[in-house]
# Entry
Amino acid sequence: MTAALFLVLAALVVAGALMTILNRNPVASAMFLVLALVSLAGIYLLLHAEFLALVQVIVYAGAIMVLFLFVIMYLNLKTDIETGVQIALRRGVGWLLTAALGVMGFLLFRRMWGAGPPSTLVPPPDAGNTKAIGELLYTRYLFPFELTSLVLLAAIVGAIVIGQGRASGGSGR
Amino acid sequence: MSLPAGIPLPWVLGLSGVLFLIGVTGVLVRRNAIIMFMSIELMLNAANLAFVGFARSMQSLDGQIFVFFVMTVAAAEVAVGLAIIVNLFRLRETVFVDEVDLLKG
# Structure
């Protein structure tokens, strides 16, 4: 049952991701990316990472994708124009490199490098791992956790300073 | 063909690899900076999926903590990157990366 659900969700993830990069319309791309990320949250649930599944939905599908959509609509982007020999050539080279990378990954995977023995352990029957993650986050990983606040602060300041632009500035220069 | 009881680790890693590959393709093939940015998100998510898979396989929570940190960095990266794209659009009226080939503004 779990394996069947995993296969369905994996198909949704791959389909969403493919449509994200193949669709000409940026808004549609963003919506398909939401589909992929939410399906990924389902896979996290199956893998018993309940806390991460919820964070994935809230942070990725909620915050990050809203930011993406906001920027797309702010810039008023039309459908991409992708014609011309040079662009077609570039796209061909891109797909070729992808194929090469795919073959390489497949060969690595066939040799089971780093894959280890398959795990089909029966999980403990508890509901959710939020408590355990919280304990770990506030004991062993307390310092990195506090550092992330610094990263976020730097991002806030950076985004404001960069987004301000040159024309409307006046502060600094 | 009968399905296994749990989710085998190679399945998870395979999905992670495919997702990463799609992300790489997006960066290589598309010209729209925003779509390339979404592809980078896909690659980050592929790494997250591998982390979660290994964390489950090793019965350890440390991998999930790492995913938490990766998500934090991804959120920060998206905010700054989109600010750069907005600024770029203001300067050049385009988000196509091959029309932006000069460092001087």
